[in-house]
Structure formats: C-alpha cells, structure tokens
Amino acid sequence: MTVNILNLPDFNVQRVEETDRDYHVYAEVSAPSRVCSTCGADRLIGHGRNEQVIRDLPTHGKRLAIYVDTRRWRCQSCGKTFMEALPTINAKREMTDRLVKWIGQQSLKRTFASIADDTGLDEKTIRNIFRDYINDLEAEFRFETPKWMGIDEIHLIKPRCVISNIRNNTIIDMLPNRDKKTVVNYLYNLQGKSDVQYVAMDMWSPYRDAVMTVLPDARIIIDKFHVVRMANDAVEKVRKSLREQLTPKQRRGLMHDKFVLLKRERDLNEKEALLLDGWMKNYPDLGTAYRLKEGFYTIYEGADSPEAAIAAYDAWNKAVVPEVRGAFGDLIRAFTNWQPFILNYFEHPVTNAYTESLNNLIRVMNRLGRGYSFEALRAKILFSEGVHKHKLSRPKFERRREPDLAMARAVKGYGVPEDAMDYGLPPEYFGKVVPMPENSAARAEPPHKQPRPLKNYGADINTLIELIESGQL
Ligand SMILES: [Zn+2]
Q1: Distance (Å) from CA 40 to ligand 1 centroid
Q2: Ligand 1 centre from 72 Cα, in Å?
Q3: Positions in the chain short of pLDDT 50
Q4: Cβ contacts of residue 97 below 8 Å, gap of 6+?
Q5: What does pTM read for this prediction?
C-alpha cells in the first residue's frame, strides 16, 4: 500500500516521483460517482481516461502536482460523455481547494513572488487568487461607518488616501490615490454615509470638494496638527534663508540646533533655552519667526470658540512683520482659504490621540512597503488577523458623563447610549432597552438573550503599529 502523501482521502495515490524541487503524485479518485452528470442515470460505461494536472500545497518544502487519472464516462441513457468530477478540487482552477485557501491567506503575509516560487505557479495566478480572497474578505467584514471620519494621507509608493474612524482610532479603508473622483466614488458607495457628521482632514481641496459633494450635511474640520505644523515650516524657511550669511561652522551649528527652534518654548531644557536665546539674539529674524510660531500655537491653546480663535488670529496676523511675512505666507494663505473649516476645530476639536497614532502608523508603514502592491498592503492593513476593533471607544474630547446619568437614561427606556460599555455597565445592558426597575417580572428575566452580532469598527491603528514594529505584519 502506498502511503497517502496527499492526506486527501478522496484520492488513491498510485505512485510518487520526487525530484530536488518537486513531488509528482499520480492518483485517481478513490470513490468515483457512478451517475450521469446530465440525467442522473446510473448506466455508465467507461469511455477512456485523461490525465489532469492539479496543483496542491507545497509539501516538505517541495512543490507538489497531482496527476489525476480522470475517468471518462458515457451515459447509456442520454448518450452524453463526461469527465468524472474531482472532489476537493477548486472548480475555477486546476488546484486543490486547500491550495487556493492557503494562497489567499499567505498573500496577506508574503510577497506574490515568494508564494509563486513555493507553489510553482506564476505571479499572475497568485494575484488572481489574492483578488478573489480579498473580495471574500470584503464581503465578510463590514466596518461600521464612523460618525467622526478622518481623511488623511499616507505615502505608499505614492500618496494614498486613508479613511479612518477618529473616535475609535481605526482605519476603515485605504484608497489608491487622493483624487476627488476616487474619494467621491468611495463616499458615494459607503453604506450609512448619512451617519457621518464630522470629517476631519488636511487642507487638500479634492478631499473637501468630495465631502461637500457627497456628504453635504457633514461638517468639515481641519485638524490642529495640519495648521500648526505650517508655523514650524515658516521657522524652517527663515532658518534656511540665513544659511547664506553663515560660515560653514555656524551653518553646521544651526543645522544641529534646528530641533530647538521647532520645539515649544515650554518644553526646552535649560541648555536648549540658552541655545535658542543665542540664535535669537544673533539673528533677529529667526527670533521674530520663533516668537510668531509660538504665538500661533497659543491661538490653539487659548481660544475656546471660533470667535475667540479668529480674534486671536487677527491679532497674530497683524504682528507678522514684513521681514518674515514671506516665510509665513503659506500659513496665512491657508488660514484665509480654509478659515471656516479651520475655525470648526474650535467647536469640535479632534483628539490628539488619534493624530498622534496615525502619524506613528505613517512612520512605521515605510517598513511595510517593499515588494508589495498597494492592493496587498491595503488588504494587510484592513484584514490581517487580530487587527479589528469591536468595542466602541469613548470620545476623548467630550466631557465624560457620570455613570449614574447614563444608567438613569437607560432605565427611563431610552436604551443604553452606544458608549455605555465605557461606563462600566454589565454587558447584558449593552444594546437593548433596559426594563423599568419597578417591573419586577421584567427585572427577573435572566440575561440569556442572543448576543447581537459583533460590530466591527475597522483596523485598530495602535494594534497595527505593534504588529508592524514586531515584524508580524
Ligand atoms: Zn445521462
């Protein structure tokens, strides 16, 4: 008896040939069906055999092909001839089902080239299987549409658009580019798009135009981060313009100390403060730029309403003297062009936690890029095992309501607020109306109801960072 190297009971292995790289396994169907595939009659007569080559999982580090000695039958009832059906073989491809599944899973972890090499298939075939696998995953995982959406940018070979759920710190999609058409198309097809109330973004007009076209009721907010960093850019411009006047040694010194200029004054240690003081005294324009940068940050720290913010900005703008006005030109233009959306921030501040996480992710993503197509990277980010977040986070920028208030609302029959889990309520209160407390019959009802299907908020940004940093993604 031949040992069944395949571990596929549906096949009898007749013989195995082995080379340095390959197994060639000769087999036939072990329990052939003896009914006609057309009419169902069982009066079949043999009509020859035909060898079919079926690819299977690599085994013991070698590529494996099964040479199936497939029977041909002729039906005596209807006269049709047909090949016997091969069990556990993928209907679309000359491969075992398990190979197709394995390639799909592997395609999120490895490059197509390395999978092609291990299986003896070409990269195009691997890519096609990958696409089918992604389509299955898209159908399986439906991410909740965020109330607070982020539209950001990430550089993977070229700039791509990242769609996120700000309150939950998750990514819900990545788009191949950042064109208006692509973003419009994405938003238009988004299920539950009317749930989106706020969209935070960078100052990139295709994003704004797309949101205004498809989500006219959503409020657009420019996150603080994208604005204040332009004040740092202005300081950099002044620093670079000084280089002409400096000796090579001074130039190196200023290059070395550039981080001091970009830091907030309150974060400087004694030595750094001394360095800053030196540069500011020697180069008054640099000093002026630094003061204006600090002043610009203060707008964000001091103003608690759009009105206060615009008043503070106007005062700041008046203080921008001609000597450095050119360096601050981009910031001033941006503030003018995007003013209503920038001011929206002062009513609806986006969490810094989200911005920081996303920036960290962007930083580590560079390690991920090599050898992968955008589609594969997107799939890794969105669908890798263990990245999904199922719990709704409490927004960090809203005042936390008291637990008993949440409870009182629930008891009144309003149902539990969706972020009730963060108030320490037991899970059985989650997602259903809690009975009135005086209704003892209802209260005595054991919490045995079916758990509702788990919501999926997308790929958790912090988990992604951990997985990428530890080389698991
Ligand atoms: Zn028949």
Answers
A1: 6
A2: 13
A3: 1, 397-445
A4: 88, 89, 90
A5: 0.76
